[in-house]
């Protein structure tokens, strides 16, 4: 077999297809496909993975019995626990704290800060993480954080955008809290030292997101989540708040009824159970990308395995919107080593166009994510106008060089330094050449049902971030995830602190629900 020849990171046959994109770029620079009508969106969503046959079933146990969800999710919710209750000695606790926080991303870490701000001493707060503190989807977030802080915008307009993006299934009061707190959150991040992109005059650089009618995306180049968590985690460590790493929580403890009283953690290094007694608990364990639902690759980190909803559900917590999954439209489809990694929506907001094998821009670049992802799938598998890689992966081109055409030379390197470096490892120059993309498993739309203060139906249990359900409904817009973590990290931390200051006491420790 002849050796495959590569030119600029691409095999020869793909290089020929890139030339088709290059030749049509000048014709496309002043053309953008029209946004879809409601009817057109409904039609294209028929190819969305959520609607494909055979991938879902009804939940047969618990408070949400009868709800549907992906098979991979239902398998976990119906599974037997990892422990035998009789093997755990609950007569004494290894640790006693006022506030236990499970999860160390943006939501959990910010919750700890806000509880401390409200008067809960640092030595009475304990954050427990499955991996290292900060190993999370948060640090992989690239595109930005939404906040309506311009004169032509308002939280009400932000609310309408998010409600439409969620197909009007969002919990109204929870979404209201998200959009109302957003401008303050950006101010708080800036005060903490986050390097948010600014114009020369000091105004924030704000860009479009899919499904938005105003520019309100605040970014830190293309490592927004990493930068936001940097300043928040630094403050966390400065305050001396307790943290356990490599200790996943494998069950919640209750008082035998509807009150959460702590958790059982597993020490990955010593292989020992640790009993944590807590007056209040905040769950912030993130999403489920590593379940690889329907076999999709994912943008998520290795700890995103749906632990939080599973243990909370066994304790009696109510879930919602378990039936929908968000697939980000533009995951890497080439090279093989990075398949599924996130190529932020910000690329499209700055001018990069999805382009098919014939060099045609076939979809409005900033449709809501479920619509955009469906359009890419349709182009590859229904219309057969995708590009096939040497491994058989299909995708369409994302014409990244168009960003410099529309915004001036150097715009890509300034706005996406991390992405430029990542592709250069594979000898691909995204300034000169397009990249191949296909939808990738990205976000858990639903989760543990929350109220506007992060409370659940269980006494003593709060939720924040991707583990929660209600704020996004059945589809999330770009920039509302990091915002969710920060707003509901704050709200849950404050609410739990008030609960503690109102005289909350330790409860009995039981695994009867298991």
UniProtKB/TrEMBL annotation:
The keyword Oxidoreductase applies. Keywords: Flavoprotein, Oxidoreductase. SUPFAM superfamilies: FAD/NAD(P)-binding domain, Succinate dehydrogenase/fumarate reductase flavoprotein, catalytic domain. Residues 98-481 form the FAD-dependent oxidoreductase 2 FAD-binding domain. It comes from the Bacteria. Transmembrane segments: none annotated. GO terms for molecular function: oxidoreductase activity. It holds the Pfam family FAD_binding_2. PANTHER family: SUCCINATE DEHYDROGENASE 2 FLAVOPROTEIN SUBUNIT (PTHR11632), SUCCINATE DEHYDROGENASE [UBIQUINONE] FLAVOPROTEIN SUBUNIT, MITOCHONDRIAL (PTHR11632:SF51). This is FAD-binding protein. It comes from candidate division WOR-3 bacterium. The lineage of its organism: Bacteria, Bacteria division WOR-3.
């Amino acid at each position: 077999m002849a050796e495959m020849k590569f030119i600029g990171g691409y095999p020869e046959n793909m290089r020929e297809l890139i030339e088709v994109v290059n030749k049509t770029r000048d014709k496309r620079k002043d053309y953008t496909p029209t946004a879809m009508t409601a009817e057109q969106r409904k039609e294209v969503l028929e190819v969305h993975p959520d609607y494909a046959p055979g991938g879902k079933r009804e939940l047969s146990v618990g408070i949400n019995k009868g709800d549907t969800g992906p098979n991979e999710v239902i398998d976990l919710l119906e599974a037997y626990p990892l422990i035998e209750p009789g093997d755990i000695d609950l007569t004494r606790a290894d640790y006693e704290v006022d506030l236990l926080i499970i999860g160390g991303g943006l939501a959990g870490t910010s919750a700890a800060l806000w509880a401390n701000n409200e008067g809960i001493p640092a030595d009475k707060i304990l954050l427990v993480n499955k991996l290292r503190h900060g190993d999370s989807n948060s640090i992989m977030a690239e595109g930005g954080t939404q906040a309506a802080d311009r004169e032509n915008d308002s939280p009400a307009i932000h609310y309408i955008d998010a409600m439409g993006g969620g197909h009007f299934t969002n919990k109204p009061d929870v979404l209201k809290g998200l959009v109302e707190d957003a401008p303050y959150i950006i101010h708080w991040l800036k005060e903490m030292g986050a390097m948010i992109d600014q114009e020369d005059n000091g105004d924030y650089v704000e860009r479009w997101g899919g499904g938005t009618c105003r520019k309100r995306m605040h970014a830190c180049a293309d490592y927004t989540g990493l930068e936001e968590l940097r300043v928040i985690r630094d403050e966390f460590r400065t305050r001396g708040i307790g943290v356990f790493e490599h200790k996943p929580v494998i069950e919640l403890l209750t008082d035998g009824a509807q009150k959460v009283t702590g958790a059982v953690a597993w020490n990955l290094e010593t292989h020992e159970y640790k009993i944590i007694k807590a007056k209040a608990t905040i769950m912030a364990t993130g999403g489920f990308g590593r379940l690889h639902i329907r076999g999709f690759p994912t943008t998520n980190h290795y700890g995103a395995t749906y632990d939080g909803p599973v243990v909370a559900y066994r304790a009696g917590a109510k879930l919602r919107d378990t039936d929908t999954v968000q697939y980000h439209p533009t995951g890497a489809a080439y090279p093989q080593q990075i398949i599924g990694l996130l190529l932020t929506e910000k690329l499209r907001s700055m001018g990069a166009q999805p382009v098919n094998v014939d060099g045609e821009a076939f979809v409005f670049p900033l449709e809501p994510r479920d619509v955009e992802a469906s359009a890419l799938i349709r182009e590859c598998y229904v219309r057969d106008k995708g590009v096939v890689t040497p491994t058989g992966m299909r995708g369409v081109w994302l014409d990244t060089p168009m960003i410099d055409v529309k915004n001036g030379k150097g715009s890509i390197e300034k706005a996406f330094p991390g992405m430029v470096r990542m592709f250069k490892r594979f000898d691909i120059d995204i300034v000169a050449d397009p990249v191949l993309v296909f939808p990738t498993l990205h976000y858990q739309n639903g989760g543990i049902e929350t109220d506007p203060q992060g409370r659940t139906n269980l006494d003593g249990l709060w939720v924040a971030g991707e583990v929660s359900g209600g704020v996004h409904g059945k589809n999330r817009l770009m920039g509302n995830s990091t915002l969710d973590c920060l707003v509901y990290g704050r709200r849950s931390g404050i609410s739990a602190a008030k609960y503690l200051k109102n005289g909350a006491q330790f409860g009995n420790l039981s695994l009867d629900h298991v």
